[in-house]
Specification:
It is built from five helices and five strands, in the order E-E-E-H-H-E-H-H-E-H. With 146 residues, it is an alpha+beta fold. Strand 2 and strand 3 form a beta hairpin. The relative contact order is 0.15.
């Protein structure tokens, strides 16, 4: 396992890699990371925060239940600048009664930003929760809409 650091417009992250790819993007906020800089990922995230789009995504090494993997894959299909409700996402993955389970999968998302759980909102149109905080979720959604 290898750990590196990245600074973004929303705060600092530690990027954690297996020998296969990026496993986790751990938000550390304003704290300074003791790990070396992740130059490749820094470049990718700089582009994202400038253009609200990803280029040259790193290879991901996702670990989770079959249901979590299905949800995370579906999250990646939500276009930048769009939102989807927990309920409609549950329907799309073939589990129409699993809105809460979709929310749990979003909460357990190991690679926020790349797996864009910030694009999932409540069925009534309200913003809902986000592992990095509602303020950051709002910032990301507004940034992607510009």
């Amino acid at each position: 396992m290898e750990i590196k650091s990245v600074k973004t417009a929303i705060g600092n992250f530690n990027s954690i890699y297996s020998n296969i790819g990026l496993m986790r993007l751990e938000f550390i906020g304003d704290k300074t990371s003791p790990y070396p800089k992740d130059k490749k990922l820094q470049h990718v995230l700089n582009i994202y925060f400038k253009n609200a789009k990803f280029e040259d995504l790193p290879f991901l090494d996702l670990k989770g239940s079959a249901f979590h993997l299905k949800v995370w894959h579906a999250l990646c299909l939500i276009p930048s600048g769009s939102t989807e409700s927990y309920k409609s996402l549950a329907k799309k993955i073939g589990s129409p009664g699993a809105s809460r389970a979709v929310g749990t999968a979003c909460k357990l998302n190991p690679i926020p930003l790349f797996i864009p759980c910030h694009r999932v909102i409540k069925h009534d149109g309200s913003i809902g929760q986000f592992g990095l905080g509602v303020k950051i979720k709002t910032f990301l959604l507004e940034m992607e809409l510009l």
